[in-house]
Amino acid sequence: MSLKKEAISGSEVDERLAALITNANAIRAIASAVEGTLGPKGLDTMLVDKFGEVVITNDGVTILTMMEANHPAARMLINIAKAQQEEIGDGTTTATVMAGALVGAGVEQVAKGVPVARVIEGLRVGLKKALEAMRGHARPLNSLDDPVVRQVGLVAGRDHADIADLVVQAALLIGEEKLRDASFKFSDTIVAEEGAENQVFLGVIINKERMNRQMPKELEQVKVLVIDDALEPEEIDDEALGTESGFNRYLQLQAEFKENLQKIAGLGVGLVLVDRGVDDGAEEVLTDEGIMVIQRVANKELRKTAELTGARMIKRTGLKKAAAELEKYLGKADKVRSEEKLEQVWVLGGKGKPMATVLVGAATSEVVGERERIAKDAASSVQSAVKGGVVPGGGSLELAVAREVEKVREGIRGMAAYGVDCVVEALKRPMAQIVANAGFNPLEKLGDVIAAQVETGKYSLAVDCDSGQVADMYGLGIVDPANVKTYALKAAGEVAEAILRIDTIIKKREEKELQNKDVG
Prior knowledge:
This protein is of the alpha+beta class. 54% of the residues lie in helices and 14% in strands. The strands form four sheets. An eight-stranded mixed sheet has the order 3-10-4-9-8-5-6-7, sandwiched between helices. A two-stranded antiparallel sheet has the order 1-2. Strands 11-14 form a two-stranded antiparallel ribbon. 43% of the residues are buried.
């Protein structure tokens, strides 16, 4: 059988380009929603739901996750931004803006007749060079005492000096080794509360109150029991309970449970944290013994408290162990106190690993969420800087790297060079947007900065958003974590390639419709 190669009609080309333009417009719309927040002069965005509830924020990932977006391409970009937030904790706005620029430039090239495959080929070459250059410019931190650490927190914390100071203080308490631990997220130590005073302490906040006011309000040198289960007698089903042997088993379980409670008291336990509910009888017994009990504690808080106090989490069946064996599961806290105004219990100090908490105060309930988001960004950036070093901010690095990528273009033959051009344009975008948000002409200022970087050989030059003059970002203390920059560019490249590869959009049939056909 002979195969005949069919010519692609003009209408088919137009249809494929239309699909690409549709996706590109969706990406552009998402980028437009957050680009106004970029830089020190970036403005806030107001998000309003159908009930009139309002969130005012400058945080890119918050805007992206809360905004209504139905287009598949838009959701793809939002998911990439979420992944960046989860992995790095910051840089989502930069990633989104660069993704928009990459896709937009790519579509322009395709519309001019450059094959998508050549554009993608050039994208890959340009991105590889850009990432190598970015990593090559990273400066490692000397120590946590390095003044640059505070500057990282200040920039990511949107110039909130009090938050930057809290984050640095907490980093010093936690230590560099812990910050480098891949399983530790510094941002998880952040808690914001209305009416609270800014402070950092070695301890954990449990967002629950003690079970009743008759329990102790404050304890010192406390033995801690962490139960990853309910503190209730083991259950027996109704059917078994209707038999004599089942009823006897029930009585036995009740007796064992009471013995376990007495065992807890006999070991001198002062604080019991329970994952689920607590039996009424257990509450009464433990109250009489002067033990503070907190039920339905979030699993994350259980684990943090166990780590702080050196406790080993145990199931209720484990309470049957001999007292000497059970003793090995207990942790120890220096102090435990109930903060009734905040409806919390604070566990301070312990024999386990250092666990700092950063408490960020807020004057009103309306700003609690935003203060917490700012502090989490600052903490994430400090941790990223410890792991991967720092680079100059303000879009200076991206602009310098763009010039290095342009040199790669000179050695590329064929249409793939146009894909490299897309990377160059995307790398210019962060500074252009920062400058525009500050009220200056981006074309003019980019020209000034490029000329200054070439003349001086300094890749850290950008625009001072207060004066509009070219300035050294390192000198101004405008620094970003290197990991944030590289991850943002990598994420933007992944989105752009995925979008450019789509040339047809087909609506899926509903799952029920497919199932009905299979049955038929």
